[in-house]
Amino acid sequence: MRNLFKNTGYKLYLKQQSGSKRISFSYIPNQDGSVRWFWNSGSKKPLFLKFYNITTIKGKLFAFVVRMIFFLRLQRLLFKKETLYYTSEENPLFDIMNDWAIFTGTQGPNNKAVLFADNCFFKIASTKNAKNLINKEYKIITYSGINTFYSAPSAYLINDCVLKLSDISNNGKRQKKFSEVHAKALHGIKEKHQTMIKISNWKHFDTLIENFSTIDDNRIPPNLTRKLKIILENIDKDEMIHLSFSHGDFTPWNCFVKDDILGIYDWELASFEKPKGFDFFHFIIQNGILVQHIPWKEILVQIRKHNKIAFNFDDNDLKKYLKFYLLTNVLYYLKLYSEQEQWHLQVHWLLKVWSEALNMYLTEIKTKRELLIMDIFDYLYHEKYATLKFHDKEPENLPLNSDIDIVISCNDASKMALFLKQNSLVNRMKIVKKSFMYKIRLITHDLQILNLDLIYQLKWKSLEYMETNGMINHAEMNRYGVKISSPQDTAKYIYYFYTLNNSEIPDAYKNFVYENTSEKMRKSKTECITMMKRKRSNRGFLFLKNLCCYFKDFFSEKGFIITFSGVDGVGKSTVISEVSELIEKRYRRPVKVLRHRPSLLPILSVFTKGKEKAHQDIVNSLPRQGKNDHFFSSLLRFTYYYTDYIIGQFIIYLKYVLRGKIVLYDRYYFDFIADSKRSNIKLPEGITENGYHLLLKPKFNFFLYADPEKILDRKKELSYHSICDLTASYGRLFSKLEKKDPKIKYLSIENNDLDTTLSTIMNTITAAK
């Protein structure tokens, strides 16, 4: 502050000096406690609002409250104050005892304070970089001049530290939304200078890349740096690019709309070497991040919408020039931030959105799942957490069927869930909030699955066996910026996990566990439970609370039912086995396979042959060999099995679905409709079909079919004509049911290639909402 006033013709003192005068400053601080705006406490006008972006509802409310405070003369009572002493030179820049206000600026190598006094702005440089910038701004304003579509302030360079600018904001309004006024101004700016060059001849870009290569700042998330390097390595240097004159910091807070003319301040970052559209992209993106606080996917929607009135880029050019905007802007500011001792909160906001924005230029090199993993660990880079059993490679190289277990605080888990929900790579997200963790399933736009467990309590049933705070504090960051649970904590976790669940520690972990745990710690399951019960977190009221939460967690996520239909020999068993394994690995859900029906009631032959003989006969007999042709006996058989479905469906729902299991039916009720002979029943199709209306509908129903020749190669249980008739019957039924209820999936799949069939089934399950 002393240096600031020295450049304006005043000297400040904490204590009274000979010839000094007393003055009181009022001020409003930043979130970190540093001074943001200050002014003469005797001022009658809130001139510091000249620096405030009054475009949002929050901003307008703040400005209204401030004006009311000054109107009621309450400012001396409500704002923080500091008393200082000053002496002045012969011709100071302004009258310190009059109305004025100062904005201290953004900390960093480009820091400049801005003084508003006597209806003028004064930029006051406090660093060497800042001096260069105000000199540059003076020259640029002189060059840019007045245009039909925009105006710039008149400028006067008082000395190498102070630039005087006229106030062009009077009777003007800031607008947070991009409009035709802004679009016309951008065309006016662009017309000052345009050129087409090869990227290999673009000196400004080369300088940015060279400066980027010198950055050594471990505060920058490593995956953002890696993304930039990958994109830069894949740029075609022979490609032509359109460069134009640009303002460089074209934002709502630097613009005022007055009489359909845009008044523009802060020309210090103007350049002749920025890619076409730079100012347009900058306005939308900076406003979206710093003012609207919206995620990248919403910012991109705004870019595409306003592009129609700005430059009207086609899709290819929009993507191209947005890429070079991002590269030039991000490379410039990363270098700037690396030289900045302390980062303000907005830096983290910007880095997060920039990193996500770069993903659209990496989808041919990385999958969306891989990019999402990179985003996750960049988001967590400055947070406290510990991953469990995570590999020591690039984080995105996580195997397709592997999940990510993260020990993190409950509050941070909640914030992370919001971040994931807003990420543009996420097509759908399923959150299951349990008493001790967030269980999150993410599905990308290319239908890949990523499972995360955000754990804030390490529990077995209702008992806590390890404290998460200690594990988080002991975490160690690896070379890829991922915080890994310490070897001792990991070994302890693995030992408890497998011991308490009555499982052998896998061979891959045995040596690791024994090397990193003491013999005293390695106890039997019974001893572990006794030890856990002594912990304070597992006693008294907390025990009761944990027990209630444990039972509640049982029903935190429902399962669903999948049915598979088709003639014998079509390959259902193989498909069901593979799907069961994929669901357990990718969905991380337990699977229960049932054959044909709930089987609450035994097969009818059990009553005449006994259980073992009846089942043996079923195994040894060929399908569709029953001789029952009587309507009455068929109706009795059907009623018996239908009763099994009616009652059994609720048992299955309570026993499996409600507790989160996925039930796979190898054949289902559809056999009674399309192939009732298989159950030794002969009834009109309308009777069995109407019975389906009273059943709970399975979420996914797959009918598998194949060429009769292929089926007969596998099994010769059915005749050629029977296969054709049954395939047609099932096909008609599934088509009919699909039209009746589009919310339930009835899909017919030709099972010629197993991988294709599995891919179709899993994509159908994954894509369903």
Automatic annotation (TrEMBL):
InterPro entries attached to this UniProt entry: Kinase-like_dom_sf, P-loop_NTPase
Transmembrane intervals: 51-72
Keywords: Membrane, Transmembrane, Transmembrane helix
Lineage top rank: taxon: Bacteria
Entry protein name: Thymidylate kinase
Protein species of origin: Chryseobacterium candidae
